[in-house]
Every structure is written in C-alpha cells, then in structure tokens.
Amino acid sequence: MNKRLGRYILPVGWIGVGIAAVQGCLLTLATAATITSTVADQTEVALTVYNADIGLVKEVREIELSDGEHELHFRDVAAQIIPATVHIKSLTDGHSLHLLEQNYEYDLLSPEKLLEKYVGQEVKLLDKNYYTGKEEIVTATLLSTTGSPVYKVGDEISLGLPGRVILPRIPENLVTRPTLVWRLRSRGPGKQRVEASYLTKQITWRADYVAVLSTDERRADLSGWVTIDNKSGGAYRNATLKLVAGEIHRVEEPQAMYQRAMAAAEAAPPQFREEGLFEYHVYTLDRPTTVKDNQTKQVSFLSAANIPVTKRLLLRGQQGYFFTAYGPDDDIPTQKVSVFLALTNTADNNLGLPLPKGTVRVYKADKEGALQFIGEDQIAHTPKNETVQVKMGEAFDVVGKRKQTEYKRVARNVTEVAWEITLRNRKEESVTVRVDESVPGDWEVVTASHPYEKADAHTLRFEVTVPQQGEVTVTYRVRLRV
C-alpha cells in the first residue's frame, strides 16, 4: 500500500474495480423492479383477536417475483398496524426471499393532505364567471392551508377563492391506502407464496351473556355471544377467526405516539372450539367469516339450558362501624340488602366451558310471559368448575337496620362492641339473608343470638331465615384487639 501526504492511494487497477462495483450497486438500486401487491393476491387470511385491543393478522399472498432486488408495495394492510411487529417469509422456499429494508407508508391521500403538499406552488382554480357564465381557469400560488386556503393571484392576496382546485399530479409521498414497502432480494423467478403477519391496534372483542331466569328462580338458560369491534382500518374477508381470552402482558408505549336482541330459547349450537394456549384460552370459529372495517360483529359461542342457580341475599357490614361509639341520636342509615345469582361452571350443570370475561344480562318473564330485564353484572375470566356470581341489584322488600347497643373500652387496645341487626321481610314468602360483618383486628365472639361462623380472618357470618311479612333481630357482642 502506498502512502502520500497522509492519504491512502489505491493502485489504479483497484480503483477501476472499486468504481465498477459502486456503479453496479447504484445501477441495481436504481433499476430494482417495483411490484405492487393488493388484497386481490390474497389466498388465505387468519385473524386472532385479543381482549386487549390488539389483533394478530396473518395473510398469504401469491406474488410474481423475478430474480434480483425488488421494491414490493404490500397494500391493503390495517391502518392501525404496529410496524415493528411485521414478519414476512416465503412459504414456497424459505431461503429464496431476503428482507433488506421495510417502510410503512401511512401518509394517506386526502383533500387536506393534497393541499398541504402544494403550499408554495402554483395551482389552478376552475370557476364560472358570474357575468359570462363561462368556466375560467385562474393560476394562483397556494400560500397557506391553515384554517382556509390563502392564495396569491398576480400581485394580490386572496382568501377563500371560490371554484375547484386543480392539481397537476399526486405527490409521490402520498399513498391512497396504507402500504408496507419492502426492499427484497429474491433468488429465482416465479410465483411465491408470501406470508406476512403483524399486530394491529384498535380491534378487540368481549363476551356478552344473556340469562333467562325460570319462574321459580332456581334455573336459568344461558346464551353467550362474542362481540368483535374492528376499528383497525383493515377488512378481513373469509378469515379464519380465533379469539384469545386471558390477561396478556404488554409493554406500555408512550402516550404521545397515539393521538342484540336476546337469544331465543333454542339457541344455535356452539360455533367455537375451545383449547388451552399457554396460560390463556383460544376460541376458534368453525367456519370462515368476514370482519369489515368499522364493524361490530356478534357471533354465538355458547348455549346452555336448565342451569341450576342460587339466589343469595347479602347484608354486608363495614369495618368502620367497630371504631366508632354511636350515641342514641346517631342514626345509622337503613342498610340495603344486595341480591346475587350464583351458578357453578360444571359439565353437570350443562356448562363446563372456560367462560371469558364479559357482561351477563339477566331477564325473567312477568305474569304475562313477557321477558323483563332484571339486572346485569361483569364477570371475570372463569375457568370450568368455578362459581360465577352476578350482582343483580338491591332488594326492594327486604331491608336491614343496624343499632349499636354497647361500646366499651376493656383495656388500652381491647374493645367490646355489641350490635343489634334487624331484618324485615315484606314479601309473601320467607327469605334467607346472609349477614357478613367485617370485623377488624384480632377478635372473638362473646355472645350471639344466632348460629355463626368465622368465614375468614375478618368476616363474621350469620345465615338468617326471615319469615314472610316478618322480622328477625340478630344480636352479638365481639371483643376486639386492634
């Protein structure tokens, strides 16, 4: 190697080779074929929707590729695509396709975007002359599009000129549809089956359940629907549809990056097949379906009849009651008795399917046979053999009244508190009310008028039967160490 004045000098022969190589690379880049693929090339599409506002799209297209480098415009992808999640591969020959570069073009064509691209340039305005009735073309320079367009016509500035704006061409950096642009190197000519997969935002699903309660309130028919809400900016035609239920952990992205009718008594058979996946559950629709953009789609996935249910009335106390000495004039409000329906998700009860979280809406027929809405509640993801509990509301004809009969300090950290709880039943049938008292600290029951159990470390529980049009008073005294 020769060295002169701190510069490295290559032999003349090497220089010629180097120049030829650079020219060859530039020629390759300049002459790389541009290929456009649209949804018309699509042969398969699969959509997996998570109840976390994301979806996984996997599609296969047949694309004609020649040997060498190409710029592939992969159109008709979801507008809400997450570009970092895109994966592409050849199903024809896994070693024949190499991805060199990827871009996501989302600067979509619109009147506003078009005008913005022509700020500072000449445009034409077509308008009808008020006096002659003829259409005339005026050449103007677009100065601004903020608010309303500002033009310079000759030496004058015009605001809000009438007429149609005529532009010479569509700017190169605007696209009509969301497009992935790939720089590819293909080995060998011919058609390739190319699979592209990616995550997209703004598509989600939820479960909705309709329960019809029997007249005696001991049985229920349950139907389940999945509701898919697609605002991803993409349409998925004849797609294999899968739904994933579970709490999937995701990395939070910076905020700045983001600016039915009730089921009939005889519902259709279930259309989804369920299977476990990792710590989640996957529900696969047994047929292809189309999910359009900006569409809310409902599909039946569950139908079960004659499920045993249990109605529970619950009066729940508060720990704060045990830290305060109430005087005779301190009126504690009448307490509401909450109403719950409970069912066990087992095969013996005509269920036994992992139930995804969702809203349960409950109906019951009135005396004329018309179904009436009687309450709704959210349920969490519920595995099989677990109990589902639905809060219906507050009882109208069963009420509770609380009275503190004694509050005594026994020692520095020991207190005895006595309560009297009156339950009144104004119904024409007897009811059972569960009373759950939330007792703080280390405690023991000194006396009680009714049988009780220590349900957990801080719950004193009574099961009280109240006769029709009657009332029952429960009294007890507890000693607390807090």
Can you walk through the features of this model?
The protein is mainly β and 482 residues long. Among the domains are: 1-31, no CATH class; 32-107 and 175-200, Immunoglobulin-like; 111-166, no CATH class; 312-337 and 394-481, Golgi alpha-mannosidase II (Immunoglobulin-like, Sandwich). It contains 2 helices and 33 strands. It has a 9-stranded mixed beta sheet, with no helix packed on it. It is elongated, with a radius of gyration of 36 Å. The relative contact order is 0.11.
Explain the layout of strands and helices.
Layout: E1 2-4, E2 7-9, H1 12-31, E3 33-37, E4 42-50, E5 54-65, E6 68-75, E7 87-90, E8 97-105, H2 111-117, E9 122-128, E10 135-144, E11 150-153, E12 156-159, E13 164-166, E14 179-186, E15 190-201, E16 203-213, E17 219-230, E18 236-245, E19 272-277, E20 280-285, E21 289-291, E22 295-308, E23 310-316, E24 335-344, E25 358-365, E26 371-379, E27 387-411, E28 414-425, E29 431-438, E30 442-448, E31 453-456, E32 459-466, E33 470-481
What would you say about this model in short?
The protein is mainly beta and 482 residues long.
What structural keywords apply?
33 strands; 482 residues; elongated; Immunoglobulin-like; eight-stranded mixed sheet; mainly beta
In the CATH hierarchy, the third-tier topology of the domain at 312-337 and 394-481 is known as Immunoglobulin-like
Biggest sheet descriptor: 9 strands, mixed
Shape: elongated
How many angstroms does the end-to-end distance come to? Answer: 88 Å
Number of DSSP E strands: 33
SS summary, helix count = 2
Q: If you average the pLDDT, what whole number results?
A: 84
Strand content: over 45%
Rg from C-alpha positions? 36 Å
Sequence stretches where pLDDT stays below 50 over 5 or more residues? 1-30, 254-268
Structural class assignment: mainly beta
What is the helical fraction, as a range of percent? under 10%
Question: So what's the CATH class of the domain at 312-337 and 394-481?
Answer: Mainly Beta
CATH architecture grouping of the domain at 312-337 and 394-481: Sandwich
Strand order of the largest sheet: 30-33-28-27-24-23-29-32-31
